[in-house]
Amino acid sequence: MSILASEAALKDYLLSHDDRYRELANEHRKFEARLTELASLHYPNEDEQLEETIIKKKKLLLKDQMEAIASKYKTSVRSH
């Protein structure tokens, strides 16, 4: 199995079995949807530009938290 396939399998597993991971993923998805909306604006105002910057930072933080959960899970699986 390739690394990408195993990463996808781990993500699917965590989405099904880890409430915190699922919560973070749902929030990440909402941020992604809002970024898509903001990106479609031809002339975003200052507030929209600021919102985009803030959402991008929050989205990265969520991704880091999700990665930490996945990494902790991988480590616990390897040690058993």
Keywords:
80 residues; mainly alpha
Can you walk through the features of this model?
The protein has 80 residues and is mainly alpha-helical. It has a domain at 18-39 and 46-75. Helices cover 86% and strands 0% of the residues. The model has no long low-confidence stretch (mean pLDDT 92).
SSE arrangement:
Elements: H1 3-17, H2 19-39, H3 46-78
Helix pairs in contact: 1-2, 2-3
Describe, in short, the structure shown.
With 80 residues, this protein is an all-alpha fold. It contains three helices and no strands.
**Assembly category:** single chain
- Poorly predicted runs: none
The CA-CA distance between the termini, in Å, is: 20 Å
Which word captures the global form?
elongated
From the alpha-carbon coordinates, what is the Rg to the nearest angstrom? 16 Å
Judged by helices, strands and strand pairing, the structural class is: mainly alpha
Main beta sheet: none
Helix content: over 70%
| DSSP, total strands | 0
Give the helices and strands as they follow along the chain.
HHH
By DSSP (H or I, 4+ residues per run), the number of helices equals: 3
Strand content: under 5%
Nearest-integer average pLDDT: 92
